[in-house]
Backbone:
């Protein structure tokens, strides 16, 4: 079983929204053999079929097959693990580490389908199975991590003379494997080992419950408007809201769904202040409504169990354990970075609020700026200070054209060519999903496929994410890449283009950056794809910078009606306002990141989530006009699983790298398309994945470590030497 499956890697956690661990159902299932598994007709277990080295059979997904598929795949994997652990030959890289890399293929395929049900096409029926299987998958993982014979073999290889003669990637894979097992209970004995496994099962159930509760509130809270309540809203948004209402059997009305892509533009443009407050509260109160889907008690339980588990390993707190193998290394280092930025961020918020309040007073609004006013009056300030109308900008941001722009950037930097696959050739799980083949422009070599699922719908979790259905490796023959981007844009009305905001366009490029990271991989072993959380956001954040390059603006940011490129004066206004509203953006993010670390460095016995959140933010001097980007009860990054837990700061850590790397491009002769810098970008920052220590990789690209002042300059904050 590959390390990334054993510990339910970042990719799986993201795809499954945190519902990613669990055990075998019965002794009978646990004793099933690999041969028995293969005799069962279940498409979820089968090797991918068809063209492009085989693709997932998404058109044949049947939820009734999921439980037996998980159980049989786990049984097969345990058989594989036992064979490795009980090998009578002396442990070496090939018969231990490499065999672990080969194991778990069937289960990995099942998780591909599981991830689609969890994130893209969820239903109450699936969520029931998810809740039931989560603790079983956790127990299954514990059977592997606590296999003493297996860990003994891994340890032997790691400490052997052979280790010194391995390739750099083999050494790193061996270390990652050893470290992953050691940090996840393999060194424990007796009651401690038993309790560790029990905690994993309990946490898996709670992670699934947290995620399910948030999704329930996203589905259950929808604001339906009449024509008289549409004042201020752009026509394109109104058309999309009408389509969303019709889809929900409210034809003739206009639906504001409980997702960021619907909430954000409504709060920006609606002149109906009471409705803005209602939509705002629906969104920010997810998981905090005092009903059966309330997450406060769930958070308390999760924190208590996490703390107990790391104490078994000898750590003082969960964050100390989590950050040990990250770039930050310690909670103190992570908090130290945020403490450098936080004062400048909240100071900027005060300036932004003063500008907004002045406009509200001038208009005679007789209000004090509240959180549901921030976007609305911020937009007025933008127009006043920069003569920049976000809705005007939106007319040039067509979803299809932005996709073409991303392909253009990928062609210039990575030499990739994207060609749409004819409908029906590759199975998809929803009619909105389209697929492109990716090739090397020069050689014509097939690289892989790129799936795109762009639109919001019922049963799809909120936000945007990227994942893979297959990653590039060469150790058992070269495999292609099956990558996927998923968004929640509000689909344009029939026959009309989907227009999105500048912020959404940046997110579109961001997630495509993850896809390029997958597609450009040049590694031998599957474990080399395991991510370092405070590094893996760097590549995607960096790609956002190409949205504002002249080449993209002139060719792809064209008016949806006239087809004319964005005027130079509008482009200049966008550039002039590049640091506008950075107080809001930085503060709402950092409040979540800081709270994440506080939750995971504080004794859980002292935490009542809502009280703790309020008290700590008050101590930090959190402006009353801004809230956490992800308030505690819907903070899925850290409570729906463990991919980002005690690690949400990683976006800021990665942003330091991003700002510093962007300056390398900006100062190059060829700017953001400079061939030499682009070549170093692909070679050291994208293709190596986690086959090399991230800090070393960045130094090879830049010639030095990243500097935090680049970030401060980027955001227009004061730079301190």
Residues:
């Amino acid at each position: 079983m590959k390390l990334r499956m054993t510990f339910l890697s970042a990719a799986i956690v993201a795809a499954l929204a945190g519902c990613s661990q669990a055990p075998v159902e019965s002794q009978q299932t646990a004793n099933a053999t690999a041969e028995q598994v293969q005799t069962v007709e279940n498409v979820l277990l089968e090797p991918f079929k068809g063209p492009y080295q085989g693709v997932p059979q998404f058109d044949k997904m049947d939820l009734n097959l999921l439980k037996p598929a998980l159980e049989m795949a786990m049984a097969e994997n345990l058989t594989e693990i036992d064979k490795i652990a009980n090998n009578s030959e002396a442990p070496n890289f090939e018969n231990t580490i490499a065999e672990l890399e080969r194991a778990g293929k069937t289960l990995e395929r099942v998780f591909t389908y599981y991830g689609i049900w969890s994130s893209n096409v969820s239903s109450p029926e699936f969520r029931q199975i998810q809740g039931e299987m989560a603790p079983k998958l956790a127990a299954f993982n514990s059977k592997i991590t606590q296999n003493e014979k297996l860990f003994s073999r891994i340890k032997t290889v790691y400490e052997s003379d052979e280790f010194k003669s391995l390739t750099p990637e083999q050494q790193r894979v061996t270390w990652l494997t050893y470290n992953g097992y050691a940090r996840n209970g393999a060194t424990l004995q007796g009651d401690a080992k038993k309790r560790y496994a029990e905690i994993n099962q309990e946490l898996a159930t709670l992670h699934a419950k947290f995620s399910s509760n948030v999704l329930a509130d996203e589905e259950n809270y929808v604001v339906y408007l009449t024509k008289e309540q549409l004042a201020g809203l752009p026509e394109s948004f109104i058309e999309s809201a009408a389509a969303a209402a019709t889809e929900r059997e409210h034809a003739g009305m206009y639906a504001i769904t409980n997702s960021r892509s619907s909430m954000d533009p409504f709060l920006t443009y609606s002149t109906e202040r009471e409705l803005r407050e209602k939509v705002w509260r629906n969104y920010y109160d997810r998981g905090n409504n005092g009903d059966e889907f309330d997450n406060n008690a769930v958070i308390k339980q999760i924190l208590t169990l996490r703390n107990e588990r790391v104490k078994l390993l000898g750590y003082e707190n969960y964050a100390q354990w989590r950050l040990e193998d990250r770039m930050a290394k310690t909670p103190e280092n992570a908090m130290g970075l945020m403490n450098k930025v936080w004062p400048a961020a909240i100071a900027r918020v005060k300036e932004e609020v003063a500008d907004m309040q002045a406009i509200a007073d001038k208009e005679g609004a007789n209000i004090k700026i509240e959180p549901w006013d921030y976007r609305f009056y911020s937009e007025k300030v933008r127009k006043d200070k920069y003569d920049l109308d976000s809705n005007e900008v939106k007319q040039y941001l067509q979803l299809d054209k932005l996709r073409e722009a991303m392909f253009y950037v990928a062609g210039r930097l990575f030499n990739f060519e994207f060609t749409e696959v004819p409908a029906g050739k590759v199975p998809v799980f929803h009619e909105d999903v389209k697929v492109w083949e990716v090739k090397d422009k020069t050689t014509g070599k097939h690289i892989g496929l790129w799936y795109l699922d762009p639109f919001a719908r019922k049963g799809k979790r909120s936000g945007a994410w990227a994942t893979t259905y297959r990653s590039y490796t060469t150790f058992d023959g070269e495999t292609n890449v099956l990558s996927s981007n998923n968004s929640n844009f509000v689909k344009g009305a029939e026959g009309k283009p989907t227009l999105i905001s500048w912020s959404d366009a940046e997110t579109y490029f961001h997630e495509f950056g993850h896809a390029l990271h997958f597609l450009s991989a040049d590694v031998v072993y599957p474990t080399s794809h395991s991510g370092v959380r405070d590094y893996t956001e760097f590549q995607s954040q960096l790609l956002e910078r190409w949205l504002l390059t002249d080449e993209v603006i002139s060719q792809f940011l064209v008016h949806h009606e006239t087809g004319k490129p964005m005027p130079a004066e509008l482009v200049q206004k966008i550039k002039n306002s590049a640091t506008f509203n950075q107080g809001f953006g930085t503060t709402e993010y950092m409040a979540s990141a800081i709270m994440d670390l506080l939750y995971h460095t504080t004794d859980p016995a002292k935490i009542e989530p809502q009280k703790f959140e309020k008290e700590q933010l008050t101590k930090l001097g959190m402006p009353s006009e801004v809230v956490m980007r992800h308030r505690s009860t819907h903070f899925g990054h850290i409570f729906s699983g463990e991919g980002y837990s005690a690690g949400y700061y990683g976006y800021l850590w990665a942003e330091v790298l991003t700002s510093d790397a962007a300056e390398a491009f900006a100062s190059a002769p060829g700017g953001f398309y400079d061939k030499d810098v682009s070549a170093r970008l692909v070679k050291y920052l994208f293709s190596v994945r986690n086959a090399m220590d991230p800090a070393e990789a960045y130094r090879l690209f830049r010639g030095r470590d990243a500097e935090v002042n680049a970030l401060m300059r980027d955001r227009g904050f004061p730079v301190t030497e």
Summary: Residues 1-39 have pLDDT under 50 and may be disordered. Residues 331-362 form the longest helix (32 residues). Strands lie at 223-225, 254-256, 416-420, 434-440, 446-455, 465-470, 481-489. The longest strand covers residues 446-455.
